[in-house]
Design goal:
- The protein is of the alpha/beta class.
- It has helices spanning 21-31, 52-60, 78-88, 103-114, 124-138, 156-167, 191-208, 212-218, 232-237, 246-257, 287-305, 312-339, 346-369, 380-386, 390-405, and strands at 11-13, 37-44, 68-74, 95-99, 143-146, 175-180, 183-184, 187-188, 228-231, 263-269.
- It starts with 10 loop residues before the first strand and ends with a helix.
- The relative contact order is 0.15.
Length: 408
């Protein structure tokens, strides 16, 4: 059970009374009459072969309120796309599967790339971006939720609590971020959030002084959660990174576009666990190493847009400050784990901090060496302005793919 503490920057919606799921779903059925809903599921084909995705489908099949489901499928051959269509066909809700590697969507992608309107690299951000474009072109959804497809502890209550704040017509929220405790199998998880993001924000405040943006980011209880919901108009102007900076990039865009009283976060799960990334200390292009670099770059870029000037000396100071703050946090987390009967390996925690400290410098050097790098995928407003027909083409491509390759 959560507390009722509010930090005054964004609204926190707690789970105070363990409200019956059926009661909340009944309300959502009423909300759907005024605010049509959609769910975006960005997934890799490989996730269909795990235990998590079949369980997610079992729970989604029981959702009683009308919701259209948009699945973005990455890294799938034609045979795998055919299997995916069969896999998702048991969903009773209206649903569409975007074959992001198929020739039709690739052709649209190449056209957009010709005008530098599409990301160069594949990834979750690109997947989400195309799903948003489809939602704008082919659905009437006014309240949209998104969650990851590797959640092994998934329950449909997660979706209900996640979409409720933007689906309720009596609320004025444009955006809602999910949060939860990352514990599983007797261990405290969430290393990148605990050991990178939180101590890095503390360090940036010490080095750079008070900045509203840093206070804003620090107000989110789990800034790296892949679960969020938003109103339709959010998607039109959203500029998001295509790499692991997606979650921080989305939060930054919401800070730029909306007053904080239109933003909230909600407790969506007592227990949450998903696929864990390796530390990948020897590989900057994979695992938590790449994740930490991408996230740190996203924060540095946003600070630069707010007028902060960076140089090598600044990054060295940030790294040194971060290292000391992060080590202090390890002791805090160790004590928190112990009182709750959880395990926490101090040696592996310190190894992670050492890697993240090194990657702060790498992220800083990457920023200094390539300051003109486009940090965001263009908004769909800009894309539609350059290619007014693209929205119809996207809708038609998805329909044609499903018709040609779907179960006969």
């Amino acid at each position: 059970m959560g507390d009722f503490y509010q930090n005054g920057i964004i609204t926190t919606l707690h789970n105070l009374a363990q409200r019956p799921l059926e009661d909340m779903e009944q309300e959502l059925c009423e909300f759907a009459k005024k605010r049509p809903m959609a769910l975006i599921l960005p997934c890799l084909y490989s996730e269909l072969e795990t235990d998590a995705m079949p369980n997610i489908i079992r729970h989604l099949k029981q959702v009683p309120y009308p919701i259209e489901i948009i699945i973005g499928l990455d890294r799938a051959t034609e045979e795998q796309y055919r299997h995916a269509l069969e896999f998702f066909s048991e969903l009773p809700q209206k649903h569409k599967v975007l074959w992001n590697d198929g020739p039709r969507l690739r052709a649209i992608d190449e056209t957009l790339k010709g005008e530098k309107l599409s990301p160069n690299d594949p990834g979750k951000g690109r997947n989400v971006w195309f799903c948003m474009g489809y939602a704008l072109s082919a659905t009437e959804a006014d309240a949209v939720a998104m969650h990851d497809c590797d959640i092994v502890t998934y329950d449909r209550s997660l979706l209900a609590r996640l979409i409720y704040p933007v689906a309720n017509p009596n609320f004025s929220y444009e955006f809602c971020k999910g949060f939860y405790a990352r514990t599983a199998n007797g261990k405290m998880n969430g290393r990148v959030s605990r050991l990178l993001v939180t101590p890095l924000l503390y360090s940036l405040k010490k080095v750079l002084g008070h900045l509203d943006y840093l206070d804003y980011l620090d107000s989110y209880r789990y800034s790296l959660a892949g679960e969020f919901s938003f109103r339709r108009d959010v998607m039109t102007d959203l500029r998001i990174p295509s790499d692991w900076g997606l979650e921080v990039g989305v939060l930054s865009e919401m800070y730029r576009n909306y007053s904080t009283n239109r933003l909230c976060q909600v407790d969506i799960a007592d227990v949450y666990d998903h696929k864990h990334q390796d530390l990948s200390a020897d590989n900057d292009n994979g695992g938590l190493s790449k994740m930490s670099i991408d996230i740190t770059k996203a924060i540095f870029r946003k600070l630069a847009t707010n007028g902060i000037v960076f140089n090598q000396e600044t990054f060295r100071t940030i790294k040194a400050t971060y290292y000391r703050v992060a080590l202090d946090f390890i002791e805090t987390y160790r004590n928190d784990a112990e009182i709750n009967g959880l395990k926490l390996d101090v040696h592996s925690e310190e190894r992670a901090v050492e890697l993240f400290a090194s990657n702060i410098m790498k992220a800083g050097n990457m920023y200094l060496e390539n300051p003109m790098e486009a940090p965001f995928i263009p908004s769909w407003n800009r894309v539609a302005s350059a290619f007014p027909e693209v929205m119809h083409q996207l809708e038609d491509a998805v329909m044609q793919d499903m018709k040609e390759f779907g179960p006969k």
